[in-house]
Specification:
The complex is a heterodimer. Chain A is an alpha+beta fold. Helices cover 40% and strands 16% of the residues of chain A. In chain A, the strands form eleven sheets. Chain A has a seven-stranded antiparallel sheet with strand order 31-30-29-28-32-33-34. The radius of gyration of chain B is 19 Å and the shape is globular. Classes of the chains: A alpha+beta, B mainly beta. Chains A and B meet through helix 35, strand 14 and strand 15 of A and helix 1 and strand 9 of B. Strand 14 of chain A pairs antiparallel with strand 9 of chain B, so a sheet runs across the interface. Chain B: Its main location: cytoplasm. Chain B: One of its GO terms (cellular component) is MKS complex. Chain B: One of its GO terms (biological process) is cilium assembly.
């Protein structure tokens, strides 16, 4: 039968009495409760208890009774007792033959088994218990248990196995258990029944109590078990005997629950104090204060480990009372995973105590001086942080175990607080003796004496020269040198000898003091003993030597003094003379003074001032030999051993005996005991980490500690620091850090076995005062009785040690590689740094460097040394070639995946580079091929050509060299401008990136409010601004140019000679030429080329001919900067269009034009824009320096700001930038300048004609925008002479020149800043003539009246005169609607006004322009060359056709061209046509003259090409081409090209 | 067809603009476009697209789902200028104006396979408090002149942005001939696979 079940039965048996209903579940529950309670029982502390099952149970019982306060703690340590399988047979036998058993058990020594046997004994005899009354029992429990418990508790701390105690406890138990039979308990019969009956079939009674009472029930059971079931008791623990009267009560309740239904009267529910205590004991846990055995705190079978003993640093644990710690440990053990709180050593885990032994706050400083001291700042130089990795093994370094052997042999205190006075003296004596020994060993005095002897010999031999050939002079000099040497040496020797002597004397003195002290104190502390050994000397010889020495010395001294005397005499004589002179003067003065009484006081005093009075020099005394000898003897006696006096050789030995302690006075005994209590050990810190420590050694009576330990440090890092810490322990109490000793890191050559023992001194600043004979440290004490002559000694000592690198098995030293060594170390420095080793100059000396490298054992495999190694290999290989360079990164080559040459040869790489450099040719190169082989060589051709051309001036294209040079210059300017633009492009503003509405002002607010009410989809939508796109987001092909040709005016119409009238003029070709948009107007003619009318029915065969009528040129930059061009343009129509005529519709609207029809010509209305809209580049925001007055500049800024505020769209110029990059006030450009004489003489009577001619001349100067490719990067203004020299410029230069001419001609002229239709922002010239304003376009030479609708100038923002600037503040800016009267301040805001008068600025223009006449011959030559070139070009353009030239026609045209030039291309058409007709009657003729200004050939060719004359496919077409160049002064050339095609009429 | 020595490699990207999280906004749509270097050219598919307007899901995730497909193929000779997808998300503000809710860009993943990218979306900030107010009131928030600026580094220092939400993208990337041209973009474990 399972004991558990058995037990359960017992319970049920009990319960049946109350309730017959069986409830297994409840039973289970109650049993569980029981089990739980069991678990709480204390562990058996004694292994002996485990001997047998029974004994074990017994002990449990016992403990359960005895230590109710601790039993809860042991829960996790053991399994529940129930799980132990009982041995029923044993229990049965126990029941049957208990006496036998008892005997056995007793023999078996187990105390607890005895206890059980007692129990067992009792069970079969329940009667005595029965006899007792319940009252008795209560009283007994009340009185008896308590003391017993106390006793138990008191004793439990000790070994519980002690037999006697067991006995005692048994007795207690007996007492206790007897009265425990409650009145209502089952009788013996019942008990008998219980054990004999078979209860199985009987329905079991559940534990009737409610859950809350389970506990009681359980107790009850247990009680019962104890009483009734010795057999069952095996499995039960009967620790509830003490439950006393409560049990009784419970029992009552349990007995008749039925009665409760009827009887309401119940006993007062009183809980006795003890009962409550009992209860509380179960609920509450009071941790024991007793120490917990270590094994409980550790996992099983684990020995405690003491890390500190193993040499690991654990730190000091915080102070904690033992009791508290025990309580805590007990509590922790009670918790479930309680063991995790315990360390390996079985103690509670604890961090090192954070409490510092000293206050971190500085001690309160005394008085006022401390104020400053506390605030004193210490300057410390910044220390560069050495990189951490230097001290760790790099990945490249071989990983190895390096070993440093530190041999700590011992420690000697040179002073210690426990030193007695004698010790102090002994230490001093020892020190002096050491000093003596060291001096003796060196024996410097002897050396110097010998030297002196040698020198004297040399002098003597020098005085009697054996070498007569030596010049006397040289000898004398040598002797003098020797003599001075002798003097020096003698002084040194004397000093040395004196020191020796003093030392000896001091030693003897100290020894004497010591002896006196020993005598005085009547005991000896130190075994030191000084023996002075006397050495017999030969008195006679010594005396002689002594005397000789004296004599030599005296004679030398004599000599010296004589010399000195002579010198002094010399000085004396000189000064005496001086004095005499002064004296005489003084006397004379005195005389004078007496004569002249009125002499001012001050003067006399001045003269008589005592400072100036030279004293009468004293006559130097001649040297006295006797005195000198006396001196020498005295000194010798002082510093030297007297002759015949035995030489004293001190010998220090430790032979003395120390007085034993029992003969010493008490203070000394105390001191010695104190010394004995002191222990010393050393900690070894490697890189400030503790690695090991020596054993704790007692301080010897001689204050020496011998360790003799060798520590082998296995290291990975280069030792940064090696530190020994000296610790002293006094008794068991405290450990004091005495001092820290830094050991030098050994040289790499120092290996174990070869390292000498070294001593390092240390000292401590601790202050120790002792109450015994010890003198203490840092405490003044005195040897004298009166306390004078105080000494203050600090604890100090020496550690003897040796540090060396270990040697590995194969004999190699285990040293970390050199690369690890910190540069900061001196020892390492010498090796690793060549400069510190051999000096900077050594670096340049290869041999020296190599030598150094070899000596310092550089690791050749260390990459750090690679450059050196390479160099050294070169230097040492014996090759004659030593490179005269020093390559720093010679390893770089290994990392280049191809050589530089190869990289340069790679076309792809080159292409990528060029593209990333934004070289124009490659800026937008797409899809750079993946392989070199796919890149054509020709890709680079253009670029390379351009590079070549940069330096070479191409003269082929430029006929004359002057223009070539200019062109080159302009090209360079353009490039630099482009580059600047490109850099500016990378300078991005917020507005380039982010679109953000500006903060609206009130009007916009109102407008937007108004807008809210507006219709969402108005019937008449307004044009909205498009979104702008910055150029950087564009790629090629993104930009589309939209050209809409709206209408045209006054296009020449074909004369009705042509048959087919179906041509029209709207055909436009947009040639996307690089920079300009050409709109060429053609007449398209359809020719029926079918010869035969018979074929007409079957097919149509026509030919389209296009006849060029004119063109409109719009630079792309204009479109780009304007974003949109909407206006009417004059078509550039050649003066003669053969075969076409203008419809002369004489209309009335010319009425306004009183002068003449200025608007003659054909016009085209265009709308051009770019899709998407591009944001014009911002002008480079640069500020240039200026020579203008600062006030003026400020005024300009103010003026511009004001203008911009009012009319932000109207640009206002006040300053411009000249060619040298300086800001110049704009009016300085305007000044009357003379046009060429030629022009003035052309029409002497007609000023208007002269003006036109001047305009024409100006317009013939080639136009070249500053803003070479895009946007107004920055507008440079050149002066007129520069402009004429360069022969190129843009609008402003033309305008300035024209304006200056007009001013010269006496006109009123201004520059007009404004917007014109093709150009955008531009500069025109305004003149006032005959009550009319004329607007001149300086680039074309045309002029317009103010009210001409076709005037290209569309807005006027400001006028600039030679002395003022006027800003347009009228409502409108169109020239048609504004008043040009600048005198009206309401219309024009002037820069200079009354408040700021015109300061009279000087002009930047030259005084006069000088014109050279152009070489006519050169012009003629150029003319021929151009003609030839153009002819070739036309033939080139017609590769499939034969090009025939009609010579006759050509010559006719050539004659005609000068005529055109003369008439400026006007009014010659009819005559010309007639003449042509006459000469070439049977040709259908189409052709026209082109007029251009000459800059270079290319534009000419382009112009000819764009007319498309060469496109005629008619097989028998002939061509005619004539060129005429009219030279104007200053190389301004007017070029006429007449090109025509002729088709013979059949 | 398959040349032994290809002169270009191909990059095929498909996937979708899956969803977005814009905690404060609703009814958003997105645009995407690709930005790529000079050596790249699209060969097939759409380079840009504009999605439907989506509303927040009604569940706790509050996610805006577009599931807007992307499918484009590029060819290139040079990995420099690897394509980036630029996303811009727009939605109505309180007044019903369409305003931008976020810009973001991310490189198309280099290695073949399926990749999920979540990119933070940001908008440029107004330059001042007053501007902020007026732009809010007028419904004209600061915008980038071109969404493509978010794919480039140049000039970004002049702007200040604020993050608004996240967009999750899914890419399936297929490359062709990359390895033949000497570019290895695969994951480390597939690098040693023989060609």
């Amino acid at each position: 039968m399972n004991p558990e079940e058995e037990k359960v039965k017992i319970i049920t048996e009990e319960s049946t009495e109350d309730d017959q209903e069986a409830d297994v579940g409840r039973r289970r529950k109650s049993s569980k409760v029981q089990r739980q309670r069991r678990k709480r029982q204390p562990p058996t502390a004694d292994p002996k208890e485990m001997v047998s099952e029974k004994a074990h149970v017994g002990s449990q019982q016992e403990l359960g009774q005895e230590e109710p306060e601790t039993h809860l703690l042991s829960m996790p340590a053991r399994r529940g007792p129930r799980s132990l399988p009982p041995i029923p047979s044993m229990s049965r036998t126990g029941f049957a033959e208990f006496s036998m058993r008892e005997r056995l058990r007793e023999k078996l020594q187990a105390a607890r088994s005895k206890a059980e046997s007692v129990l067992l004994q009792e069970i079969p005899t329940p009667r005595p218990r029965r006899l007792r009354s319940p009252g008795e029992k209560v009283s007994e429990t009340g009185l008896g248990t308590e003391p017993s418990e106390e006793v138990q508790a008191a004793h439990h701390r000790d070994d519980s196995t002690s037999y006697s105690r067991i006995k005692f406890r048994d007795a207690v138990q007996k007492i206790k258990s007897k009265p425990q039979a409650p009145p209502g308990f089952p009788s013996a019969e019942e008990a008998c029944n219980f054990f004999t009956f078979n209860f199985d079939p009987e329905p079991e009674q559940p534990a009737l109590k409610a859950k809350g009472k389970d506990r009681d029930g359980a107790k009850q059971e247990e009680e019962e078990g104890e009483e009734e079931s010795p057999a069952g008791g095996v499995s039960r623990t009967d620790d509830e005997e003490l439950l006393g009267d409560r049990d009784t009560k419970d029992f009552l309740l349990g007995l008749d629950p039925a009665a409760e239904d009827f009887v309401a009267i119940r006993p007062a529910e009183y809980e006795g104090v003890h009962t409550r205590l009992e209860k509380e004991k179960e609920i509450l846990f009071v941790p024991s204060r007793r120490a917990v055995p270590t094994y409980k705190k550790l996992p099983e079978n684990v020995q405690p480990r003491f890390l500190e003993d193993e040499g690991l640093y654990t730190g000091a644990r915080p102070e904690m009372s033992r009791t508290n710690q025990n309580i805590m440990e007990n509590r922790l053990l009670q918790q479930d995973p309680g063991r995790k709180w315990f360390g390996d050593d079985g103690r509670i885990l604890a961090l090192p105590s954070p409490i510092k032994p000293f206050p971190s706050r500085p001690p309160p400083l005394a008085q006022e001086l401390s104020d400053k001291a506390g605030l004193e700042t210490l300057y410390k130089k910044a220390v560069k942080y050495a990189h951490r990795t230097q001290h760790t093994i790099g990945s490249g370094d071989p990983l190895g175990n390096f070993q440093l052997d530190i041999d700590v042999s011992g420690l000697i205190f040179t002073h210690h607080p426990c030193f007695s006075r004698e010790h102090v003296l002994a230490a001093r004596l020892a020190q002096l003796y050491d000093q003596y020994l060291a001096r003796h060993q060196r024996n410097k005095a002897k050396f110097l004496t010998d030297k002196l002897q040698a020198l004297r010999n040399a002098v003597r031999s020098g005085l009697h020269p054996e070498k007569p050939h030596q010049s006397l002079d040289a000898t004398q000099r040598t002797i003098n040198e020797y003599k001075s040497e002798i003097r020096e040496t003698r002084k040194l020797r004397d000093a040395e000898q004196e020191k020796d002597r003093t030392l000896l004397r001091t030693i003897i003195k100290v020894w004497k003091e010591m002896k006196a002290l020993r005598e005085f104190q009547r005991f000896t502390n130190t075994p030191l003993k000084l023996v002075l050994r006397k050495e017999k000397v030969n008195q006679k010889a010594e005396e002689e030597a002594y005397e000789a020495e004296i004599q030599a010395e005296v004679s030398e001294l004599m000599e010296e003094h004589t010399e000195e005397y002579e010198q002094k005499m010399e000085e004396y004589r000189a000064s005496y003379q001086q004095w005499k002179v002064w004296r005489r003067a003084q006397k004379a003065k005195k005389k004078k003074k007496k004569q002249v009484e009125e002499c001012p006081e001050g003067e006399t005093e001045d003269e008589l001032s005592p400072g100036e009075e030279p004293t009468k020099p004293a006559l130097p005394e001649p040297p006295d030999r006797a005195a000198l000898e006396q001196q020498a003897r005295e000194r010798a006696a002082h510093i030297r051993r007297r002759p015949g006096e035995p030489a004293l050789l001190p010998e220090l030995s430790l032979a003395g005996s120390v007085t034993p302690s029992d003969q010493c006075p008490r203070a000394e005994v105390l001191r010695r005991e104190d010394v004995k209590r002191r222990m010393v050990y050393l900690k070894i810190l490697f890189n400030s980490k503790e690695v090991s420590r020596t054993v704790n050694r007692q301080l010897g009576a001689d204050f020496r500690v011998h360790f003799g330990q060798i520590f082998n440090l296995q290291i990975f890092n280069w030792p940064e620091s090696l530190l020994l810490q000296v610790y002293e322990t006094v008794g068991h109490t405290s450990t004091v850090l005495l001092a820290e000793v830094f050991l030098p890191v050994p040289e790499t050559t120092v290996v174990t076995g070869r390292a000498p023992m070294e001593e390092v001194e240390f000292s401590s600043s601790q202050h120790v005062t002792l109450d015994h004979e010890g003198v203490g440290s840092g405490v003044p004490f005195s040897f004298e009785a009166d306390g004078s002559n105080q000494l203050t000694l600090m604890t100090s000592g020496r550690v003897s040690h040796s540090v060396a690198w270990a040697v590995g098995d194969n004999g190699t030293p285990l040293i970390p590689p050199l690369s690890q060594q910190n540069i900061g170390f001196r020892s390492a420095l010498k090796r690793a740094d060549a400069i510190s080793s051999i000096g900077t100059s050594g670096l340049t000396d290869m041999k020296k460097l190599a030598k150094w490298a070899a000596e310092s054992k550089l690791d050749p495999n260390d990459p750090n040394n690679a450059p050196l190694m390479q160099l050294i290999s070169v230097a040492t290989s014996g090759e004659s070639y030593v490179p005269d360079f020093f390559r720093l990164e010679q390893l770089q080559q290994e990392f280049n995946f191809v050589t530089n040459e190869e990289l340069n040869r790679s076309k792809r790489f080159r292409l990528l580079c060029l593209r990333s450099q934004e070289v124009p040719e490659f800026r937008n190169y797409k899809q750079i091929p993946a392989y070199d082989r796919e890149i054509m060589e020709k890709v680079f051709q253009d670029y390379e050509k351009r590079l070549r051309d940069k330096s070479v001036i191409e003269t082929r294209d430029h006929i004359d060299t002057h223009r070539a040079v200019v062109a080159k210059y302009l090209q360079q300017v353009r490039e630099s401008v482009v580059n600047r633009f490109l850099t500016a492009k990378h300078h991005i503003l917020l507005t380039d990136l982010v679109v953000e509405d500006e903060v609206p002002n009130i009007s916009i607010w109102g407008l937007s409010l108004f807008k809210l009410a507006e219709q969402k989809r108005p019937l008449r939508p307004r044009r909205k601004g498009r979104k702008k796109v910055t150029a950087q987001n564009l790629s090629d092909g993104d930009i589309k140019l939209l050209v809409n040709i709206c209408r045209a005016y006054d296009i020449p119409v074909r004369k009705p000679t042509a048959r087919a009238p179906n041509g029209d003029y709207s055909t436009a070709s947009l040639q996307s030429v690089k920079d300009e948009v050409f709109i060429n107007v053609f007449d398209e003619v359809l020719h029926d080329i079918l010869e035969d009318d018979r074929e007409r029915g079957s097919g149509i065969h026509t030919r389209i001919e296009r006849h060029w009528l004119g063109c409109v040129k719009i630079p792309f930059s204009t479109i780009y900067s304007q974003a949109r061009i909407d206006g009417t343009f004059k078509i550039d129509i050649p003066p003669v269009l053969l075969g076409y005529c203008k419809e002369r519709s004489v209309t009335a609207e010319r009425g306004l034009d009183s002068v003449r029809s200025l608007s003659e010509g054909s016009y085209l209305t265009l709308f051009i824009t770019i899709e998407p809209q591009l944001v014009p580049g911002q002008p480079v925001r640069e500020k240039f320096d200026s020579q203008e007055d600062e006030k003026l500049l400020q005024a300009t800024e103010k003026f511009q700001a004001e203008c911009a505020l009012k009319f932000p769209n109207r640009q206002c110029f006040t300053t411009v930038i000249d060619l040298s990059g300086k800001t110049v006030f704009i009016t300085r450009y305007l000044k009357p300048l003379n046009p060429p004489e030629e022009l003035l003489n052309a029409y002497p009577s007609n000023p208007q004609a002269i003006a036109e001619l001047a305009a024409r001349y100006v317009s013939l100067i080639p136009f070249l925008p500053d803003t070479a490719s895009f946007t107004g990067v920055c507008d440079l203004w050149s002066t007129s002479d520069q402009f004429l020299d360069l022969l190129a410029g843009d609008e402003e230069e033309h305008a300035v020149l024209l304006c200056n001419y007009f001013l010269f001609l006496g006109k009123k002229a201004w520059l007009v800043m404004g917007n014109a239709i093709p150009e955008g922002p531009t500069v025109y010239v305004l003149t006032w003539e005959q009550n009319h304003y004329f607007i001149w376009n300086p680039c074309s030479g045309h002029f317009y009246g103010q009210f001409d609708t076709f005037c290209p100038l569309k807005s006027v923002s400001c006028l600039i005169g030679p002395d003022n600037i006027w800003f347009n503040i009228q409502q409108y800016d169109s020239p048609l609607r504004i008043n040009f009267d600048v005198t009206k301040p309401k219309l024009w805001k002037s820069f200079f006004s009354r408040s700021l008068p015109y300061p009279g600025l000087s002009s930047v223009q030259p005084e006069e322009l000088i014109y050279q006449r152009t070489d006519k011959a050169a012009a003629a030559e150029l003319q021929d060359r151009i003609e030839k070139m153009l002819k070739e070009k036309i033939m080139d353009w017609r590769p499939r056709h034969l090009t025939r030239w009609n010579r006759h026609c050509t010559s006719t045209l050539r004659h005609f061209l000068p005529l055109l030039e003369r008439s400026h291309g006007e009014d010659v058409e009819d005559d010309h046509r007639a003449e042509l007709q006459r000469q070439l009657g049977d040709y259908r003729f189409s052709g026209f003259p082109l007029h251009l200004s000459y800059s270079e050939v290319k534009p000419l060719i382009e112009a000819v090409y764009s007319t498309g004359v060469h496109n005629i496919d008619v097989p028998n077409a002939e061509f005619a081409l004539a060129v005429y160049i009219h030279p104007y002064p200053k190389n301004v050339l007017s070029v006429w090209i007449y090109v025509a095609s002729l088709i013979r009429n059949r | 067809m398959t040349a032994a020595n290809p002169s270009v490699f191909l990059l095929m990207v498909n996937g979708q603009v899956e969803s977005a999280q814009f905690p404060e906004y609703d009814d958003l749509y997105c645009k995407y476009c690709f930005v790529y270097g000079q050596d790249w050219a699209p060969t097939a598919g759409l380079e840009e697209g504009i999605s439907q307007i989506t509303s927040k899901s009604q569940d706790v995730r509050q996610v805006l789902v577009w599931n807007f497909p992307i499918d484009v193929t590029f060819k290139s000779t040079n990995p420099y200028g690897w394509p980036q997808i630029v996303l811009s998300v727009y939605g109505p503000d309180v007044f019903g104006n369409d305003v931008v809710r976020g810009y973001g860009a991310v490189h198309v993943p280099f290695s073949p396979g399926r990749h999920k990218r979540t990119i933070a979306m940001f908008v440029p900030e107004s330059t001042s408090k007053l501007q902020k107010f007026t732009s809010w009131f007028m419904g004209r928030r600061p915008e980038y002149t071109d969404p493509k600026v978010v794919a480039q580094g140049e000039g970004r220092e002049v702007t200040r942005v604020r993050s608004q939400g996240f967009v999750t993208l899914l890419f399936n990337v297929v490359t062709k001939d990359m390895r033949k041209l000497g570019y290895d973009t695969g994951p480390a474990d597939t690098q040693d696979i023989p060609r």
